[in-house]
Design goal:
The model has no long low-confidence stretch (mean pLDDT 95). Strands 1-3-2-8-5-7-6-4 form an eight-stranded antiparallel barrel. The longest helix is centred in the N-terminal third of the chain and has 19 residues. The protein has 179 residues and is α+β, with helices and mostly antiparallel strands. It has a single domain, classed as Alpha-Beta Plaits (2-Layer Sandwich). It starts with 11 loop residues before the first strand and ends in a 7-residue tail after the last strand.
Length: 179
């Protein structure tokens, strides 16, 4: 078996923020962790982080990475036309008000696969001097239009271990790799 370089999955990153119907976040997280992690990874995606946000009790935030822009289209096509998504999509979609708050990003500084020691994950939408990973809006057009991405940028997204003004605390779920 060939070793996988998970840092290569930082080449293309989706920061996905779902607004959910009140009180349904834990229902979606349970479904997501039980049914969607392995099939997406088998299709060629890498799920870095699955998060709750304390500031928004009806929001689910997650990070999905790909080794290339072309690999993104292939992985998404494989997953969203596959049997797992077909079986559970209605159940997942029933929890959501909006799933279109998605940023398609490229790395400025990689580091999601090897964050510094410590606890806490913070995301901010500006450059942060304490960031262990920094991304910027991917300027190429969305190559999987079935899943919309935001085009109102550009954005810079920083991940750090330390709170800073404007940073949002992300609370990892049990299956989150980024902790």
């Amino acid at each position: 078996m060939r070793a996988v370089d998970f840092s290569s999955f930082e080449t293309v990153l989706e920061l996905r923020r779902y607004t959910l119907h009140p009180g349904r976040r834990d229902e979606l997280i349970a479904l997501f962790e039980r049914e969607f992690v392995e099939p997406q990874e088998a299709s060629g995606a890498h799920l870095f982080g699955l998060f709750r946000t304390a500031a928004s009790p009806d929001e689910f935030v997650w990070l999905r990475g790909f080794s290339s822009f072309a690999a993104r289209a292939d992985a998404l096509s494989a997953f969203y036309t596959g049997p797992v998504w077909r079986r559970f999509r209605d159940e997942a979609n029933a929890t959501m008000v909006d799933s279109d708050n998605v940023l398609l990003l490229r790395p400025v500084r990689r580091g999601l696969t090897s964050p510094p020691p410590g606890s806490g994950v913070y995301v901010s939408f500006e450059a942060s001097p304490s960031a262990f990973a920094v991304f910027e809006t991917e300027p190429a057009p969305n190559n999987f239009p079935r899943l919309p991405v935001r085009t109102d940028g550009p954005f810079t997204v920083s991940f750090s271990r330390a709170a800073s003004p404007g940073a949002e605390s992300l609370e990892p779920t049990s299956r989150s790799l980024l902790r």
